[in-house]
Amino acid sequence: MKIFPLYIDPGTGSMLFTVLIGVLGTAFYLLRGFFVKLRFWLTGGAGEKKGQEDRMPFVIFSDSKRYWNLFGPVCDEFEKRGEKLVYLTASEDDPALKQSYENVRCEFIGEGNKAFAKLGFLKADVLLSTTPGLEVYQWKRSKDVKWYVHALHAASDVSAYRMFGIDYYDALLLSGRYQIEQVRQLEKLRGLPEKELVLTGVPFLDAMKKRLEEADPLPPHPVTVLLAPTWGKSGILSRYGAKAICALLATGYHVIVRPHPQSFTSEKEMLDTLMAEFPESEQLEWNRDNDNFEVLRRSDVMISDYSGVIFDYCLIFDRPVIYADTSFDKAPYDAAWLDEELWTFRTLPKIGRPLEEKDFDRIGEVIGGMIGNPKYQAAIEEARQETWCHIGEGAARIADYMIGKQKDLKEAAEKAAADKKKTAAKKK
Q1: Where do the domains of the chain lie, and which CATH numbers do they carry?
Q2: Which residues contact 361 (CB under 8 A, 6 or more apart)?
Q3: Which of 9, 90, 96, 159 has CB atoms 3.0–4.6 Å from 335's, for a disulfide?
């Protein structure tokens, strides 16, 4: 008899894993509840007090080392204030793990499902993350985390997240008023309770701005073009791939290709093919730096599509961009629920020049016309005002919010306990 190997596709595997975690989690909480009550009875409440002491007041979870540019300034702010914070990461080589903090504890909790399983049993007051998909995919809310807070990892549209990505957070930390309008529309359409929406700014842009102000002048270098697309079927490399790279190399300019980090996971075969066809040379670089500051700084012009890095580049370095017309498909994103055009696509024509496939034959001329062009400066400043509030204050405002929220939660819990005690006394 022929035996066929058992195959489970990734989607089904993820679903089965989630069900298993749910079953195990339920069993865990039932058993834990029993033992907590037993310990309370045996110790006269001492065990309950110890359980409260084990709670972490503030937690940050990062699913990738690439978000250290967002969370690093927040960790620094907690360290400066002497506030205890736990930073949990799913990247074994996260830069956080090399930091020497006294008040911030950094810990690697495993990758992928292992990390999400641990988060399911977390005990904390306020948890901050930039990971979408809470309660949608593998990451389930812990019954012992009081408040989940999401911070955007790009100064652009909230509705550009994959569908339902931010629905089940308690609060969102935003950088522009148009983002508030997008969230409220989605909540109304889906019948969701309103989240707390707080305009805090963008810590990683604040840090990048400060670095630029303090950096030494760039040494002489050849004219450099940075190709920095997003990932997915609407991105430049997926749509144009070899044709785009060939056209850029034909200009004679120095070319840096910086794929989106997710491409190395979700589009590995495509990238492997391109990197084999176009190996690194004196003219061509493939860039995977975790920190994108230097590669942005030494680029004279950027070519992208709708990636959030466009705004990092324009808002910090005051340089226009060339953006590829890739016919963005809204179907997988929250934007599909909204009638209005994304802020990104309303803004791109003002701060840069579109690039169509027919332009590839004259791309050198297009690039030359953009470098140092002052035409876009007023529009870049307008975009900065719309999408980057509280410049220079992002990390401090995020810390203020988390500390204030934890205080509010503690006071609410104390009031509820006092009210419960009064009710019990009246019944006696």
Answers
A1: 52-202+392-405 (3.40.50.2000), 207-387 (3.40.50.12580)
A2: 247
A3: 159
